[in-house]
Amino acid sequence: MADLQKTVDELAARLGRPLLLEDRVQRVVVYSEQNGTMDDVRRDSILRRHTVPEVRQWLRASGIHRATSPLRTPGAPHLGLLPRVCVPVRYADSLLGFLWFIDADPPMSHEQVDEAVAVTPPIALALFHESLATGLASHRELEAVTGLLLGERDAARQLIEAGSFPQAQPVTVAVARPYEDEPDDTLRLALEQGLLALRRRLSGHHALHLVRYDHAVLITAGPPVPAEEMHAAMPMPVVVGLGRTRPALEEAADSYREARHAAEVAARVPALGRTAEWARLGVYRMLTQLSDQELHPGLEELLADVQHLPLLETLETYLDLAGSAVATSRALRLHRTSLYYRLQRVEELARTDLKDGGERLSLHLSLKLARLSGRYSPRDLHNSA
């Protein structure tokens, strides 16, 4: 509610006129301070916390419940009502509320109405988020889910007692991470909208969600929701990481940790596709626990110079294919002589011996770790060799 109040106060200050937000049954949600013309209806609505039936009937006759865009409602002197601009607040075609402005002394300009319309998406999202709460106020749900992912066992008890999650049911966590490196408020708002829409479709899974700084979290009862549903719900391209299913809600933090790591790996390793399951990450499960300071020392020179990227790509493909020169030449569409030359240059620059199994293992793991840290980003080898 504090965010709604801040949004309303800031918009009222910019427009220089009072503003009142009602829900869809015209109960007052928040209102700005009085900084302009006031009529009896605004005063009574603030005092009563709702609009009286006569005024509701008058405004309904003006078409506010059917409106999908701003409309101007006429005044009614006998009701103490000045003309108003009504901006309907909708989410996914559902009417959630109304923004009201007194349209007098002077009337609102088209530019001011457009500015009011521009703030409705976050208001709609906040109202919709409130409407999702079942037995637990949305701000309390947010706090409980945050605590749950931090491993606080009392948070699981709160969610179960409030009916937000079934008792004695397994839990699975999925993480969606956008490709953008620099998240902002617009991106987080889009993630929130996607998750809220998905929750509506997943009512049988007792879904919970949370949007963090750079990723979105979906918690469901039972086995994981098909990743394609999560991709479809997101308004931007994402990678999805899936944690392993745990037997009880108290262990959701463990599934979350795995899902987050899986999403990070998927973002760094495009070959894994748009979805990565922690249980199928193989060696990357171990590498997510390591620092890139653990790289093979001979790779530093190769990583430091972009001109050596073809050598690194060749080395990784060669090691991925168990040291088979035939398979590597075929995969890279590279002549065998050129392949041997590149591998020889790797040995010289990295001061290593590719005939040594220990060296091959160290180089292989180091290349995968460099991928995760972002220090090594191979091209599409089939088009770059």
From TrEMBL:
Alphabetic keyword roster: DNA-binding
Pfam families: GGDEF_2, HTH_30
Superkingdom as given in the UniProt entry: Bacteria
InterPro entries cross-referenced by the UniProt entry: CdaR-like_regulators, CdaR_GGDEF, PucR_C-HTH_dom, PucR_C-HTH_sf
Annotated ranges, domain CdaR GGDEF-like: 155-265
Domain PucR C-terminal helix-turn-helix: 311-369
GO molecular function: DNA binding
Family: Belongs to the CdaR family.
Protein name: DNA-binding transcriptional regulator, PucR family
